[in-house]
């Protein structure tokens, strides 16, 4: 029987940009739909990105609100690198928590300073890392490998204690796992003092890894995703995370003019900027593949002056865009695209992705197999899950982990791009099997978040636990 204590009050404190902010906002919306009074804590400039969807939720009666801090940090335009200092928000957060202590606060791990403030005030803190269970297990268990004894960065080793045989190389690991670094220890400490952690995934996607995270980790884990599925209307999908800066009408009209299952969607997330030489290789590979594509090109890497001068994207090969326009083969978009809408369009057959966890889940939910091109963060682990465990993707052949802002060493050539695109897009038994598998998983994703599903149950369980905790305090 549900306890009668009124709604629990949850605060959500997302990081200040793209891949971490978007799922946290969806998570707040999920908990509001479960009846928790959910408040999203953000800077004034960031609130503008998603306030429309929250207004719509409020109009439909959901208990959700935005609290904007009086302090701001420099506008990050959705592409906040993980080391942006958000500590200007420390005092406003402390004051808010003293005045209005919630039943719990969900904090993104990149607000490194926030753990102590919340801990001092005795408020249950739930950590949000943005990763799935598989990547989490890989990173946890890589710690037990003597990486220094490997012959080279490209020598494979087996990650111990995993349910599947997974080989990685040192070059695929984040630098902070390869060399002594305080970062993993700090994240671990953040979690050790926490009430538990949220995982944006669902049990049936990675069951053995979900069990490992839930049972062997020593802290509670609530697996509550895919949270993107809370975006049910076209408006929510279009404006999710941020208003699109491209003409979505034009994009949808173009997709409408294509045959079902015929277009490749190409995008590398909110943060990564590719160097112009790499963009050229992609352009040539795509053109040579003779497949239709829609490609979201963001500014190029590490060269602001080039970006300014070539604001129109002249870093693509000579005449490329004109040819794509004339033949109707490709649509090149610049800016922020409505990714959910694009992925769910019937014309989309595949997604060339950097394997960011949100993009991965969104592709899975849309039943779209992937071409995997991991570059940074935990993306190489996500690639293993996609291509070797779930078998719903083709590797492009990316080998070298990069810090989000470091020099590029390893370009992927046009032949590799063409070959991966053909493998996924040209009809074959292998491609068909991948599509069948991912569509099956997409159905499981939908069931997970519906009443009776595992993610639905985990969200309810947390709410009940918070209610019980509140009752115990009142006694
Ligand atoms: N995204 C989007 N439009 C864009 C680029 C990105 O909607 O033009 C969204 C995408 O749907 C996903 C998030 O931004 O939800 C990117 O997160 P992900 O974990 O895939 O990668 P990151 O940006 O963190 O590297």
TrEMBL record:
Gene3D superfamilies: Glycogen Phosphorylase B. InterPro entries: UDP_glucos_trans, UDP_glycos_trans_CS. Keywords: Coiled coil, Glycosyltransferase, Transferase. The keyword Lipid metabolism does not apply. One of its GO terms (molecular function) is UDP-glucosyltransferase activity. It holds the Pfam family UDPGT. Its EC number is 2.4.1.-. Residues 414-451 form a coiled coil. Belongs to the UDP-glycosyltransferase family. This is Glycosyltransferase.
